[in-house]
UniProtKB/TrEMBL annotation:
Pfam families: UDPG_MGDP_dh, UDPG_MGDP_dh_C, UDPG_MGDP_dh_N
Reactions this protein catalyses: UDP-alpha-D-glucose + 2 NAD(+) + H2O = UDP-alpha-D-glucuronate + 2 NADH + 3 H(+)
Residues of the UDP-glucose/GDP-mannose dehydrogenase C-terminal domain: 320-421
One GO MF term: oxidoreductase activity
EC number, UniProt record: 1.1.1.22
Pathway membership, UniProt: Nucleotide-sugar biosynthesis; UDP-alpha-D-glucuronate biosynthesis; UDP-alpha-D-glucuronate from UDP-alpha-D-glucose: step 1/1
SMART domains assigned to the protein according to its UniProt record, in alphabetical order: UDPG_MGDP_dh_C (SM00984)
Protein name, UniProt field: UDP-glucose 6-dehydrogenase
Organism expressing this protein natively: Streptomyces laculatispora
Taxonomic lineage from the root: Bacteria, Bacillati, Actinomycetota, Actinomycetes, Kitasatosporales
Keywords: NAD, Oxidoreductase
Similarity comment: Belongs to the UDP-glucose/GDP-mannose dehydrogenase family.
Amino acid sequence: MRVSVIGCGHLGIPHAAAMAEIGHEVIGVDLDQAKIDRLNASECPIYEEGLPELLATHTASGRLRFTTSLTEAAEFADVHFLAVGTPIDADGRSYDTGQVFGAARALAPHLTRPTVIIGKSTVTVGTSRDLGALLARLSPAGEDVEVVWNPEFLREGHAIDDTLRPDRIVVGVPSARAEDAVRQVYAPLLANGIPLFVTDPATAELIKGAANAYLGMKISFINGVADMCTAAGADVQQLTEAIGLDPRIGRGGLNAGPGYGGGCLPKDVRAFTASARALGATEAAAMLRAAEEVNESRPTAALRLVEQTLGRPVDGVRITVWGASFKAGTDDVRESPALAIAALMHQRGATVTVHDPHAVPTALRRHPELDYAEALDNSVHGAQLIVLATEWPHFREADPKALAPLVADQVLVDLRNLIDADAWRMAGWTVRQLGRPAQE
């Protein structure tokens, strides 16, 4: 098929490359000419594992190209994916769908034949209904333009794999014709046994919010328990392994750490909380808000652990933070717990140097007040304490003996429970891990 992907960001670029990989002819659309030029030159403006290779392969073959012209996209494609951003609104609780409706308004005059618009962005329930009415009113094709909602469930750092090998595909469809178009688009994946869940549009919109809100609550739950373990002298890692064996609970995502971040979970939990309140589900809203409050407390909890380890406030202390991206596998620093912790320690008077294998440039744009180091060895020179805040394998593989001569004090606070603490202690380091008993 010929498909367009409107919006070339963390969602749109991987989706466009993956659609080309499964055999479609794809045109990506974005307003940023400089970004389009880079993409057509096979230069990826974001880091996502496996994406540069797919981009290079399919731009070279001609199966994937990029443009700023919606007229060109409308003439070319029979199916249009909407993958524009839906940041949190000015109220801090709901989605700003301005880009979604803006893209639809700009595309509508060019839709002269029957077509299907497939929304990928995360939105408030009812958006696809309103978008469908708008397109029917503004498009020459009228009601022959239909809107499907097909929420993404991508894990950043795994976006390509999650698009090509998803655990499920959810589509909210208004008609059998729209469903047939979706089945054609995803036919190569469905042939591999990927389950397709066909629902009404409102259910599809709520499924995405519910999934991310649950993940956020699960993360906040185990982080709250980690605080209890710290207070009791218990071991959150052992606790997690034990309760994770219960099939009703499961081990996946049940990892204590500095909290959830990125472009999806924080805003989705906030927006789902607001939806619950708007729908009159006040008890559900209170439960969701409690999960948010736990997550919001993580930088302060991390600072408390750092200062307990130091035995004094961080004012005047030289601290290295390992990690800038909100998780491993991406250069995305939106709502990054690692950067929130680094910024808080800087505000409290520490001299903070941040190192990340891929996210230093994006972090520098958001937090220019911090110092940065491109190389792991350089990041620790003269450090009195290291904080491990993002779970890159790069940090797990660090050699404590080789790093020891470079630091002022051999002290490490591991907020991800990532390293082999015993090996580091045997090399002379003082190690503290989140939710685990102090051992010297």
